[in-house]
Amino acid sequence: MPIVRIEMFEGRTHAQKQELARAITEVVVNIAQTTPEATIVVFQDVSRDNWATGGKLESDDA
Q1: What is the structure's pLDDT at 62?
Q2: Residue 47 DSSP SS3
Q3: ∠ CA(47), CA(15), CA(40), 5° rounding?
Q4: CA distance 40 to 56
Q5: Ramachandran area for residue 59 (φ above 0: left; ψ -120 to 50: alpha; else beta)
Q6: Which of 12, 40, 41, 55 is an S-S bond match for 3, by CB 3.0 to 4.6 Å?
Q7: Are 2 and 34 in contact (CB under 8 A)?
Q8: Whether domain 3-60 has CATH 3.30.429.10
Q9: Helix runs in 1-62, H state only
Q10: pLDDT recorded at residue 61
Q11: Domain limits of the chain?
């Protein structure tokens, strides 16, 4: 059972996550030769306060 974890900044809509889940599942099914029912997609929304790039919090740029 493939599990795909997606970490991204907060703010995506329900519709965007639905489309991502559909597209990611389709690709995993085609390449890994599994089924949609066996494919799990987990979204983790991360606050910009909890994400740093290059030693700088992303919230400092917002």
Answers
A1: 63
A2: coil
A3: 75
A4: 32
A5: alpha
A6: 40
A7: yes
A8: yes
A9: 14-32
A10: 75
A11: 3-60
Reading the block at residue 56, the tokens are 């700088």
Three-state DSSP class for 1?
coil
Compute the distance between CA of residue 41 and CA of residue 20 in angstroms, rounded to an integer: 9
Per-residue pLDDT of the chain (62 residues; tens, 9 = 90+): 999 999 999 999 999 999 999 999 999 999 999 999 999 999 999 999 999 999 999 999 76
Amino acid in the structure at residue 48? R
**What distances in angstroms separate CA 15 from CA 8, 12, 47, 61, one per listed residue?**
15, 8, 19, 26
Catalytic sites, residue numbers: 2
